[in-house]
């Protein structure tokens, strides 16, 4: 499986206004890239454009893979909302994309992934019988089941309690090692913990953020992690202040 770098450049527009004036972003091959930035700046739109999904925003520019092959067929995307089918069990939701493609589902693999995300014994529950955090973990298992080279994660751990989030971050870091992963997060601690590269998306472009020299996933209690978190938070504050001015 080749996990390519992805290059995006141009300007982003929606509803007759410019969201991002000009940006040039290379998401490194086989690494985790984090995108942070104010609500509404266009982060989800960038992910949807990479995945070639319908999007209210328009990119004047281009998105290419390093190997020039098509991107969309190699993408698994975990959206902000869990997008689970209400009438299907957790296990059937994990295999839904494969079944829609006409592939034979692998229920044992789905059950194993559900166990990985801490949902052993919940395989036959419907989404309405699960908590928001449990539903988010089913959506994570569905994304992992896809086993794609490019994985787009839009606030994947936002509904989880702190301890479960920590466990799921480690799990995703392990299972998605070597994939080109793009993570949208509002949490500087999560970006510092997981990312190989990070950018703050703003109206004027994308601002690269320094990260500790250690490899992710980084220990949350390490001094370098905490210092980098504080610096990133401060940088986000400065961007917010300058956008408001
Ligand atoms: N149908 C639409 N018509 C016009 N503008 C839209 C439409 N849908 C979304 N937008 C605008 O597109 C912009 C980008 O939305 P997007 O969801 O990409 O932002 P985001 O940075 O991911 O936000 P958040 O962090 O809140 O998820 C927003 O400012 C939003 O108002």
Q: Which H/E pattern describes the elements?
A: EEEHEEHHHHEHEHEEH
Give the number of domains: 1
Supply the helix-strand structural class: alpha/beta
Mean pLDDT: 95
- The fourth-level CATH homologous superfamily is P-loop containing nucleotide triphosphate hydrolases
Q: What's the CATH topology name?
A: Rossmann fold
The rough form would be described as: globular
Biggest sheet, spatial arrangement of strands: 5-6-7-3-8-9
Domain ABC transporter: 1-228
Family: Belongs to the ABC transporter superfamily.
Organism: Antarcticimicrobium sediminis
Keywords: ATP-binding, Nucleotide-binding, Transport
Name the features:
alpha/beta; transport; binds adenosine-5'-triphosphate; P-loop_NTPase; 9 strands; six-stranded mixed sheet; ATP hydrolysis activity; ABC_transporter_ATP-bind; Rossmann fold; three-stranded antiparallel sheet
Overall description:
The chain has 245 residues and is α/β, with parallel strands linked by helices. It has a single domain, classed as Rossmann fold, CATH 3.40.50. Helix content is 35%, strand content 24%. It is built from eight helices and nine strands. The strands form two sheets. The protein has a six-stranded mixed β-sheet with strand order 5-6-7-3-8-9, sandwiched between helices. The model has no long low-confidence stretch (mean pLDDT 95). The site of adenosine-5'-triphosphate has 13 residues, from α1.
């Amino acid at each position: 499986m080749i996990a390519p770098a992805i290059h995006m450049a141009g300007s982003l527009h929606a509803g007759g206004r410019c969201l991002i004036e000009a940006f040039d972003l290379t998401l490194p091959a086989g690494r985790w890239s984090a995108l942070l930035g104010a609500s509404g700046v266009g982060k989800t739109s960038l992910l949807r454009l990479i995945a070639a999904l319908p999007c209210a925003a328009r990119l004047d520019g281009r998105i290419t893979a390093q190997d020039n092959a098509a991107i969309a067929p190699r993408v698994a995307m975990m959206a902000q909302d869990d997008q689970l089918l209400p009438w299907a069990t957790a296990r059937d939701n994990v295999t839904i994309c494969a079944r829609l493609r006409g592939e034979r589902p692998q229920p044992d693999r789905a059950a194993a992934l559900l166990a990985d995300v801490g949902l052993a014994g919940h395989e036959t529950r419907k989404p309405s019988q699960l908590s928001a955090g449990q539903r988010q973990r089913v959506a994570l298992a569905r994304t992992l089941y896809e086993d794609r080279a490019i994985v787009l994660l839009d606030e994947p751990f936002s509904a989880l309690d702190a301890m479960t989030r920590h466990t799921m971050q480690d799990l995703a870091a392990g299972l998605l090692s070597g994939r080109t992963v793009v993570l949208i997060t509002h949490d500087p601690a999560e970006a510092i913990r997981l990312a190989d590269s990070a950018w703050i998306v703003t109206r004027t472009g994308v601002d690269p953020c320094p990260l500790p020299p250690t490899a992710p996933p980084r220990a949350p209690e390490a001094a370098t992690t905490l210092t980098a978190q504080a610096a990133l938070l401060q940088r986000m504050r400065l961007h917010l202040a300058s956008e408001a001015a």
